[in-house]
Task: inverse folding
């Protein structure tokens, strides 16, 4: 694993940002993206290389140093490929490039593709049958190397998505139209997306998308036509591809960010001794705080009548070297003055309501569509907000979602030949909104943190211009009584962030479904932190301090899934480690809710430990622990984790 090395390389490359212009733009490429490189046959962006073939479709993609594809991506009809033609680069800037391809196979085909600095590629493939042609099959095929397609994540901007190991799902998956699909391993992957199935001609729409493992190949197929049909008018197929990770992630970034959720204006009110709640947070290791929706007077509003209080809170945070992020949602309260006269045009249709009995006049709202005028209103409001206040970033709650919408008042929805109205998922509009918001914020505060709550929908086109994501609220309906378990393959798919290119944190409401202790055991062994609230900070502070004492920001990360050098005798115990200079910090997690005694065996060579005597210390308490040669005996009361530092006898001389 080379996450830290990649991060340092990205920081070096980011010094070469060049101009980029759009409304709300910073005038530079978004950090840490670098100028793209493009030719008629190749597209290069930060950390990825794509070799372009017929129809400008990838012949090979290299991401995180490894090839993804088992063969060229192809658009095929019957058993034939559409591959006769010529492509050329027609436009290029540091931020993006455009290509065109013209040719055909019995009828004309034209392709326009754009590739952007974060690796997002958008295709529009137009087939013009002259004269009409009869086809019985038309499909997009993406053959991936099976070892690079271990995990599958789907997203439909609901909480009902599939996310987990492909092998654990029987090596295959199929379903109706899905706006987002990602296949990858622990370090890299490939995403496909589309806004709708407009133009698809299917008698069996339940099998529109198929994923099948065939030996060393995972074949991802988008079925566009599944029956004999006379094609007599132009047909355009639109979709996106994006290889990941979109940018490096880093334990060093996380150590500088350390986010606590949900401060209020009272956080800067002193007690009789002159101490503020902010002092307690700083002492607990917090570097960043999030002010939820109460920072303003209506949900989703990006201006506040409490300006003096906000400036006071910002000032007190900055005195303590704490950053302050404020909340941005995915709609505007129905009673907010700014929404009056705009609700019907801005809303996603069918309505996606959010209601609460707590201050309903302030909080009740309907989801807004990013294709509507709400997007312009939001970008302008954020620009004014950062001009008026020295904020340190934003916390987005659902803002990145491309909600299903058929509101024709702002251009969503499409009608089939029978006049039936169908919904779309405005991914491009959501992506554009998030990019514009990032540009607006960074124009005022280049080092701002953009943090996203996006539970169950890890959609890179809409997230790649942000820094971190918070995921896990989709499990809140379970309680501790349900004894809910999140399979490790599912956690590796969606909750780690390494393969996607975003720093990740785990969201857990106490006992919904995990206790804080259980959530820490599950997440931290993956190198993922559980974001604390004020009442749970005490359980996280000792972990942060142990990591800082050891120096995890510059150590080598050895996760359990790639051979950490630590093996427990019981399969319910997983061990990951950081290693450096004759010492290792072990994260030993017991993932069952039952008592257990077990032994952990250490591979000294893998951990960089000498052959002589070892010492072991509980990294959170400082207590010495028993270790017999290379064996560490441990016992657990239930689902929990231990942080243990192991050193060789020469450590002090190094």
Result:
């Amino acid at each position: 694993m080379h996450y830290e090395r990649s991060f340092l390389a990205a920081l070096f490359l980011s010094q070469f940002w060049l101009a980029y212009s759009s409304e709300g733009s910073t005038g530079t490429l978004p950090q840490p993206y670098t100028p793209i490189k493009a030719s008629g046959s190749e597209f290069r962006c930060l950390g990825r290389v794509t070799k372009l073939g017929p129809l400008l479709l990838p012949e090979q993609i290299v991401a995180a140093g490894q090839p993804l594809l088992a063969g060229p991506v192809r658009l095929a009809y019957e058993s034939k490929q559409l591959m006769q033609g010529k492509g050329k680069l027609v436009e290029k800037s540091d931020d993006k490039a455009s290509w065109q391809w013209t040719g055909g196979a019995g009828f004309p085909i034209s392709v326009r593709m754009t590739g952007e600095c974060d690796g997002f590629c958008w295709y529009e493939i137009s087939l013009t049958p002259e004269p009409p042609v009869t086809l019985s099959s038309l499909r997009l095929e993406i053959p991936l190397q099976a070892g690079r397609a271990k995990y599958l994540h789907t997203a439909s901007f609901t909480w009902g998505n599939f996310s987990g190991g492909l092998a654990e799902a029987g090596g295959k998956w199929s379903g109706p139209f899905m706006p987002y699909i990602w296949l990858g391993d622990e370090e890299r992957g490939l995403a496909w997306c589309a806004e709708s199935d407009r133009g698809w001609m299917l008698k069996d729409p339940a099998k529109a998308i198929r994923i099948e493992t065939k030996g060393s190949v995972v074949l991802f197929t988008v079925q566009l036509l599944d029956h004999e049909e006379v094609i007599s008018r132009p047909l355009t197929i639109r979709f996106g591809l994006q290889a990941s990770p979109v940018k490096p992630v880093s334990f060093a970034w996380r150590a500088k960010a350390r986010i606590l959720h949900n401060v209020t204006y009272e956080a800067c009110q002193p007690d009789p001794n002159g101490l503020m709640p902010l002092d307690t947070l700083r002492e607990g290791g917090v570097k960043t705080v999030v002010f939820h929706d109460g920072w303003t007077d209506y949900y989703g509003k990006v201006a506040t009548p409490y300006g003096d209080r906000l400036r006071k809170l910002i000032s007190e945070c900055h005195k303590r070297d704490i950053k302050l992020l404020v909340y941005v949602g995915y709609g505007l309260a129905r009673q907010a003055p700014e929404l009056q006269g705009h609700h019907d045009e801005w809303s996603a249709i069918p309505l996606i309501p959010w209601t609460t009995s707590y201050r309903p006049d302030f909080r009740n709202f309907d989801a807004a569509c990013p294709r509507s005028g709400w997007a312009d209103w939001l970008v302008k409001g954020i620009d004014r907000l950062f001009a008026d206040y020295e904020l340190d970033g934003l916390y987005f709650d659902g803002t990145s979602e491309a909600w299903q919408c058929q509101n024709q008042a702002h251009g969503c929805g499409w009608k089939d030949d029978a006049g039936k109205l169908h919904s779309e998922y405005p991914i491009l509009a959501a992506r554009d909104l998030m990019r514009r918001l990032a540009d607006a914020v960074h124009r005022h505060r280049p080092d701002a943190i953009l943090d996203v709550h996006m539970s169950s929908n890890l959609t890179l086109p809409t997230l790649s211009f942000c820094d971190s994501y918070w995921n896990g609220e989709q499990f809140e309906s379970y309680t501790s009584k349900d004894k809910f378990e999140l399979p490790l393959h599912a956690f590796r798919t969606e909750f780690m962030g390494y393969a996607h290119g975003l720093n990740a944190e785990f969201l857990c409401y106490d006992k919904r479904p995990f206790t804080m202790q259980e959530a820490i055991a599950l997440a931290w062994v993956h190198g993922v932190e559980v974001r604390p609230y004020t009442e749970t900070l005490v359980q996280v502070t000792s972990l942060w301090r142990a990591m800082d004492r050891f120096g995890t920001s510059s150590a080598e990360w050895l996760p359990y899934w790639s051979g950490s050098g630590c093996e427990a005798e019981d399969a319910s115990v997983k061990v990951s480690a950081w290693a450096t200079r004759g010492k290792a910090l072990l994260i030993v997690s017991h993932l069952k809710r039952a008592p257990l005694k077990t032994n952990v065996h250490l591979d000294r060579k893998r951990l960089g430990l000498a052959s002589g005597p070892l010492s072991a210390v509980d990294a959170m308490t400082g207590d010495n622990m028993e270790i017999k040669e290379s064996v560490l005996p441990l016992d657990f009361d239930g689902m929990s984790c231990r942080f243990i530092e192991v050193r060789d006898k020469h450590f002090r001389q190094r």
